[in-house]
Amino acid sequence: MDKIITCFNKCPDASVRLICFPWAGGGSIHYARWAKALNSSIEVYSVKLPGREGRTKEPFFQNMQEIIDEVIGVILPQLKEKPFALFGHSFGAMTCFAFAEHLKKAFNLEPIHMFLSGASAPYSETRLQAPKRSDLSDQEFLIWVTSIGGTPPEILSNAELAKLFLPALKADIGVIDNYRCSRPSTPFLSCPVSCFDGKEDAPHDLQAWKSMTSGDFTVQMLPGSHFYLKEAANEKYILDHITKHLETAEMDYL
């Protein structure tokens, strides 16, 4: 499991696990801080996809089902032993949805909370009408990546570093461009869903996420653009929100 899931701070006595999915082109390392910042009742798992970090020699996944099959293939026993929650930003939010939908349909398992950030629901018109970024030329793609921020300028301005970084990002964007799912006719989850987004990011249809759950649904807009969650005050807000809601959920679960 260690090849695919990173646990930066093992907490065997934790009462809940938070499974974090990377954003497009991202790795698991961002969530190392979260593992240290959250209290020991929450154990953080972070998903590592092929083509990055310790998996650089592995080919990128071509579609969403490959991601879901691999992650579920290693993490299913842990999901059955104690409550879990999901977090994902942008591409990670889409992956969270696909993961939760498959878990419910195939194993009748569901998280105790979903935290989704920086993305329209995958079945929303806003998302379905969005331009396909993976079709852009390398130069056009680089311009777009620069425009959304979040990537250190020293990477984008260095041809060699950009050549290492951009293929993973473009592969993940390709997965999203080709991912299709139906709007749930009835909610398939009963857990709460919390959505976050940057006020200065391109508009996302966050309300559409409500179709997936019969549980509580909230939206919180925070200052910043697409990678607003990297800013310290916003990250603290999100972690405080996660802590409060998971501690409450633990009490309800017990």
What does this structure look like?
It contains eight helices and seven strands. It has helices spanning 32-37, 64-81, 91-107, 125-128, 138-148, 153-156, 159-177, 232-253, and strands spanning 5-6, 16-21, 42-47, 84-89, 113-117, 193-198, 217-222. It has a single domain (5-253), classed as Alpha/Beta hydrolase fold, catalytic domain (Rossmann fold), CATH 3.40.50. The protein has 254 residues and is an alpha/beta fold. Helix 2 crosses helix 3 (91-107). Helix 3 (91-107) links the parallel strand 4 (84-89) and strand 5 (113-117). A seven-stranded mixed sheet has the order 1-3-2-4-5-6-7, with helices on both faces. The two termini are 28 Å apart. Keywords: Fatty acid biosynthesis, Fatty acid metabolism, Hydrolase, Lipid biosynthesis, Lipid metabolism. Pfam families: Thioesterase (PF00975). One of its GO terms (biological process) is medium-chain fatty acid biosynthetic process. This is S-acyl fatty acid synthase thioesterase, medium chain.
How many domains, in number, for the residues? 1
DSSP E strands, number: 7
User: What is the average per-residue confidence, as pLDDT, rounded to a whole number?
Assistant: 91
Number of helices: 8
Distance between the termini: 28 Å
Oligomer: single chain
Mind sketching the topology for me?
Elements lengths: L4 E2 L9 E6 L10 H6 L4 E6 L16 H18 L2 E6 L1 H17 L5 E5 L7 H4 L9 H11 L4 H4 L2 H19 L15 E6 L18 E6 L9 H22 L1
Parallel strand pairs: 2-3, 2-4, 4-5, 5-6, 6-7
Antiparallel strand pairs: 1-3
Helix pairs in contact: 2-3
